[in-house]
Amino acid sequence: MGKGSLFKELFVNIKTTGAITFSSRSLVNKMLSFADFKGAKVLVELGGGDGSITRGIVERMDEGAELLVFEISRAFCDSLEREFPQANVRIICDSAEHLDTYLKGRPADIILSSLPLSLIPKEARNEIYRKSSQCLHPKGLLIQICYSYLLKFQYAPFFKNIKTTFTLKNFPPTLIMICRP
Ligand SMILES: C[S@@+](CC[C@H](N)C(=O)[O-])C[C@H]1O[C@@H](n2cnc3c(N)ncnc32)[C@H](O)[C@@H]1O
Predict the structure, then answer these.
(1) Binding site membership of 114 for ligand 1 (Cβ less than 6 Å)
(2) For 111-139, how does the pLDDT look when each residue is reduced to its tens digit (9 = 90+)?
(3) Which of 63, 74, 84, 113 is the most buried (most CB within 10 A)?
C-alpha cells in the first residue's frame, strides 16, 4: 500500500481514524523518549494506522521483546503485516478494548496509543481505559497522544499518576500524556 492509499484510507474513515495526517517523526521520537524499552518484554500499540509509531517502537525494542499492534482497519492491518513480517510483531485486526484476550494474563510493560478516543463510543472507551490499566505491569506506563487536555480527566479514574507535555512539531500540535498505574 503506497503513501497515497494510506492517506486515502485515513480520510475515507475519518470517523474512526480521527486524523487528517499521520504522526510526524518528531512527535514519535518525543512520545517514545518517555518509555524505557530496555528490558521491556511485552509492548502494546493501540491504533497502528500507517505504522508511524510502530516503526519507532520496532527500532527501539529489545530482540526478545514482543509487540502487539491493535488496529481496526483491515487495509491498515494488511499494510502493517507487509511492513512488519517479523515473528515478534503481531498485527491484531481487532478493537483495542479486547487487548486482555490477546495478552492472556501477561502484563504489558509499555502501552503506546494514538487512538482517537473522543470518537470511540463511551462504553468501548471506558473498556479501553479499564483494560489498559488492568493489563499494565505495576511499574509499566501508557503513553497517549491526543489533541485535547480534557482527555486527562477521562484517564484520571484509571491511572494514579498522569503527566502531560506538548509538541508543536506535528500537525496539528499534539499533547503527550504519560500515565502510570
Ligand atoms: C489517529 S490514527 C493514528 C495512526 C498512527 N498510529 C499515527 O500515529 O499516525 C488512529 C488509528 O486508530 C485506529 N483505531 C480507531 N479505533 C480503534 C480501536 N477501537 N481499536 C484499534 N484501533 C483503532 C484507526 O483506524 C487509526 O488507524
Answers:
(1) yes
(2) 999 999 999 999 999 999 999 999 999 99
(3) 113
Q: What residues form DSSP beta bridges with 161?
A: 180
Q: Which residue owns the Cα nearest ligand 1 atom 26?
A: 17
151-168 burial code (b ≥16 CB/10 A, e <16):
bbebbeebbeebeeeebe
Query: Which ligand 1 atom is at minimum distance from the Cα of 45?
Result: 6
Instruction: Note whether 49 and 13 are within 8 A (CB).
Output: no
- pTM of the predicted structure, to 2 decimals: 0.97
The amino acid present at 28, given as its one-letter code, is V
In this structure, how many other beta carbons lie within 10 angstroms of the beta carbon of residue 75? 16
The residue length of the chain stands at 181
- Domains annotated for the chain, with CATH where assigned, are 3-180 (3.40.50.150)
Which residue, chain included where needed, has cell 511485552? 42
What distance in angstroms lies between residue 163's CA and the mean position of ligand 1's atoms? Answer: 22
Q: Which of 6, 11, 101, 16 is nearest to 55 (CA)?
A: 6
